[in-house]
Design brief:
The complex is a heterodimer. Chain A is an alpha/beta fold. Chain A is built from eleven helices and ten strands. In chain A, strand 1, helix 2 and strand 2 form a beta-alpha-beta unit. Chain B is an all-alpha fold. Chain B is 79% helix and 1% strand. Chain B contains 26 helices and two strands. Classes of the chains: A alpha/beta, B mainly alpha. At the A-B interface, helix 2, strand 2, helix 3, helix 7 and helix 8 of A face helix 5, helix 11, helix 12, helix 18 and helix 25 of B.
């Protein structure tokens, strides 16, 4: 009898009792950058933040899978996405609910959903990273199409185009260039011996070590490599023609979440100038979407680069359409 | 009655923890728009691409198993049967490759053998191989097998070592009177430990089949990368689950082959440990061979990845920063790892007993039934657990929001493993021991406490050690179900590894090694004391 009582009582010892005043956030933004922001919110409001972060191994899509699986009984209040397309996908699956935040009034309309399912803030961009020990500044490629030239044969690395921001970049290229041109570009890239690796982090590692000369990755990965002292520099590609892909963070409220009011407060906070400033000064050096946020001198502002003109809804749909082609292209 | 109720209880626990979430997922993959459908399975059997992928998986698993056995079986033999100096140091060190996340071992070797790597430069200077060709070899099926075997050989080593320790020395002593060491090892020792070695090889084979990290890092197209693509690129859990089906099919085939091989053979060892412990071969040449072999394995599997990590961790401040990041993870890993492992050991003990010692027609089908779930990928189990446990009502809500969902995840993933390990050691215990207890009229719990548990000592230690290493390294299922604030060390590592400096990631990996080795060391010391006391104190063993 004593044994049975113990078996029942011991698990209760580990029960975490929470008397309200909390918010649950799932975030695919890298933990090193998102955790300090969430701690700021906790300090400011006294609302306990319980966060779950995505990992490199789940390619920033583990949490999306979890949100989909939890759809019938949501546990998260807020999803803070490191890219602009996964929230659209969640919206399409009926997992988000509209919330138009008063904090976002001065964020440009192109980064906000009309119905309020998602709202963008601080952005990253797709860039070409090159190794300065292997090539000089004059030799660097200026356009994505340069990477298909014989000069770069076997010297380019790209993350698996089925995952993460690379997949979004590919879909954006299909929209901007048209299917035929985009397919040709990818086929030329493959014919030129492009090295397909597991993630953007791996692209950064290979370029930094000089295993390849150039790679396609994101600004935050590149900035971390630069701060580590790696011999690398950034090129924002296609500034003379279509521009490069700008990828804001996105935040959305989960439908039927357990703490919707606290979730809205967290969204208001994430969309504030204060957070955009913090992310600009963090090692990821993200670009504020507002023009009046003070940034460090070496952080490129969003108006200083030419971005691709795209609609994130269309990108999400295109991603679905070209999935099979990308799978075959990547050899899966 | 006691026996029947206890075994029934633990089998039900297995059904609830492992069977239900997995069957839930496979059940839903057979349903499309509310109707029974094979649409997701048609692709697997009818597409040539999948045949290639399945072949790749089989090649990867076969080479990995062969290499792991080539390293693990001799290592286990030298540790158990020779007077190898620094035996315990070697043993603890050999566990390190298993503890370091395979992804990190992969990066270490990719750095060394990549185009600009130190070893690549060395090899390309002194061999006809070009830097490009060496680099291409590591980014291939063979490179992936090589790295995976470094990661997995400790499983073979541990299971071989404990099985060898379990062998009755009198059998070997009698053999030695008549023949050479070679003959004794070949004709007596090896056949007696064959089930453990074969079982460890099966574990490695199935683990290689379901490994995702290394094939993904080295861009090798295997079943797990296909499954992951379905989950993470297309958010299609049904197609992903269906893609996992061949893994179960392969496991079933392996089980049948194993059953055929072992049919009619007996591995029972009478009067075990009667002459106080394990026989050690004193020959000098054997000790020298052991030193050379173990040093080679030590350099290849331990020194290389550890040195790479130490060199990249650079400064003391990296360790301080890493420790700050890992504080919560360390506490959780040790607590959940210990709880999960104890759960796995206890339930595995009874399941192992059920599949090996219960005299019934069911016996031959229970063991394969438990085992075949081991090949199911972690992600499928994770989503299955969410579907089963994330319900608004009752106890499930409590479980899903607490650490118990992580323990459940460990159970769902590793119960087949722990029960399998236990079953192998049960094979070596003669039924007559238990029957002697029954004849005296002792109740089953008493027989369990006084006869079966002491005789199964090494099995319990091996199951605990191996399960602990698996639990603390588990990522795939935990990442999908862990509640906020309950992250474990592998989750901490993988959440910070992209955008943290390489020095911090390396320091964190080393912290994981130390934090896993500490509880393992304590457990090993405690179990050694316990086993010695049992041998001296138990009337059964005297």
């Amino acid at each position: 009898m004593r044994f049975i009582i113990l078996v029942i009582l011991v698990p209760l010892l580990f029960l975490r009792i929470c008397l309200g005043g909390e918010v649950v956030v799932y975030t695919s933004e890298d933990k090193v950058f998102s955790e300090p922001i969430l701690q700021q919110f906790e300090k400011k409001t006294g609302i306990k933040v319980r966060a779950i972060y995505d990992t490199e191994e789940t390619k920033s899509t583990g949490l999306v899978n979890r949100l989909i699986a939890e759809k019938d009984n949501p546990r998260a209040d807020v999803f803070w996405s490191g890219d602009p397309v996964r929230p659209v996908l969640l919206e399409m699956k009926g997992i988000t609910t509209p919330y138009i935040s008063s904090s976002a009034v001065d964020i440009p309309e192109i980064y906000k959903d009309n119905e309020g399912h998602w709202t963008g803030f601080s952005a990253r961009a797709r860039i070409i990273l090159y190794n300065t020990s292997l090539i000089s500044t004059d030799e660097k490629p200026l356009s994505l199409f340069d990477l298909t030239k014989p000069k770069w044969r076997g010297q380019v690395a790209i993350a698996n185009p089925l995952f993460g921001t690379t997949s979004i970049h590919m879909a954006a290229l299909f929209i901007t260039l048209g299917d035929e041109k985009a397919r040709k570009f990818l086929q030329d890239l493959k014919a030129n011996g492009v090295k397909i690796v597991s993630s953007n982090g791996e692209v950064k590692r290979l370029v930094a070590r000089g295993e390849v000369t150039v790679g396609l990755t994101d600004t935050d990965d590149a900035n971390v490599a630069i701060q580590e002292g790696s011999p690398v520099k950034i090129v924002f590609p296609n500034q003379q023609d279509m521009g490069t892909l700008i990828m804001p963070n996105m935040v959305c409220l989960i439908k039927n979440s357990p703490n919707p009011e606290n979730g809205k407060k967290l969204i208001d906070f994430l969309l504030s100038k204060e957070v955009e400033k913090s992310l600009a000064w963090a090692p990821c050096a993200q670009m504020p979407l507002r023009y009046d946020v003070r940034t460090p001198a070496d952080v490129v502002t969003i108006n200083a680069i030419k971005g691709m003109d795209i609609d994130y809804h269309a990108v999400a749909q295109k991603l679905d359409e070209i999935g099979e082609f990308l799978k075959q292209w990547a050899g899966y | 009655m006691q026996k029947r109720l206890t075994l029934g209880f633990f089998f039900t626990l297995f059904i609830c923890t492992t069977f239900i979430p997995i069957v839930w997922m496979f059940g839903s993959s057979l349903c499309e728009d509310g109707r029974f459908s094979f649409v997701y399975y048609r692709d697997i059997f009818l597409t040539q691409r999948y045949v290639r992928v399945i072949l790749n998986s089989l090649i990867l698993a076969s080479i990995t198993t062969a290499l792991s056995s080539l390293a693990g079986v001799p290592a286990g033999f030298f540790l158990a049967k020779t007077n190898l100096p620094l035996k315990n140091v070697f043993k603890i060190c050999f566990l390190i490759p298993f503890i370091i996340p395979s992804y990190i071992v992969g990066i270490a070797w990719a750095n060394l053998l990549g185009r600009t790597g130190f070893l690549n430069t060395f090899l390309s200077q002194y061999t006809p191989l070009s830097p490009e060709s060496i680099s291409n070899r590591i980014y291939s099926l063979y490179g992936a097998s090589f790295i995976l075997s470094i990661n997995l050989f400790p499983v073979v080593m541990l299971m071989t070592e404990y099985a060898l320790k379990n062998v009755n020395p009198r059998l070997e002593e009698s053999g030695l009177i008549a023949g050479s060491i070679f003959q004794v090892v070949r004709q007596i020792t090896l056949p007696l430990v064959a089930p453990a070695i074969l079982s460890s090889m099966m574990i490695v084979f199935i683990l290689s089949l379901s490994e995702f990290g290394i094939p993904s890092l080295l861009q090798v197209n295997v079943l797990t990368t296909q499954i992951f693509t379905q989950f993470s690129a297309f958010y299609n859990e049904k197609a992903a689950t269906a893609s996992a089906f061949p893994l179960i099919g392969i496991t079933i085939i392996l089980m049948i082959l194993e059953q055929v091989y072992f049919r009619g053979k007996s591995f029972e060892i009478l009067e075990r440990r009667a002459s106080h412990g394990t026989i050690h071969y004193q020959e000098r040449w054997l000790t020298v061979t052991g030193i050379l072999f173990c040093t080679f394995i030590f350099i290849l599997c331990v020194v290389v990845p550890l040195t790479t990590l130490m060199v990249s961790s650079k400064t003391v401040s990296a360790y301080y920063d890493a420790f700050h990041l890992a504080k919560n993870g360390i506490k959780n890993t040790v607590l959940y790892g210990s709880l999960g492992t104890t759960f796995l050991t206890v339930v595995g003990f009874f399941l192992g007993y059920l599949s090996e010692k219960v005299q019934s027609k069911l016996r031959n089908s229970i063991a394969p039934f438990i085992w075949l779930f081991f090949a199911v990928p972690a992600t499928v189990i994770g989503v299955g657990l969410i579907k089963v446990c994330n319900r608004p009502e009752g106890i499930f809500q409590f479980i899903y929001g607490s650490l118990w969902i992580i323990i459940w995840g460990y159970g769902a993933r590793f119960l087949p493993l722990s029960s399998r390990i236990m079953a192998n050691y049960f094979k070596q215990i003669p039924n007559s021991m238990e029957e002697a207890g029954i004849v005296t009229g002792a109740p089953w719990f008493h027989i369990l406490k006084k006869i079966i548990v002491p005789l199964q000592g090494y099995g319990i230690v091996a199951a605990w050690l191996i399960s602990f290493m698996f639990c603390v390294g588990e990522l795939g299922t935990t990442i999908l179900v862990y509640p906020p604030g309950h992250e474990t060390l592998p989750i901490t590592l993988f959440t910070v590894m992209v955008n943290s400096p390489a020095s911090i990631v390396s320091a964190l990996s080393l912290i994981i090694v130390v934090m896993t080795l500490l509880p393992l060391g304590i457990f090993l010391a405690a179990s050694r004391y316990f086993l010695k006391t049992e041998i001296k104190g138990s009337g059964v063993l005297r």
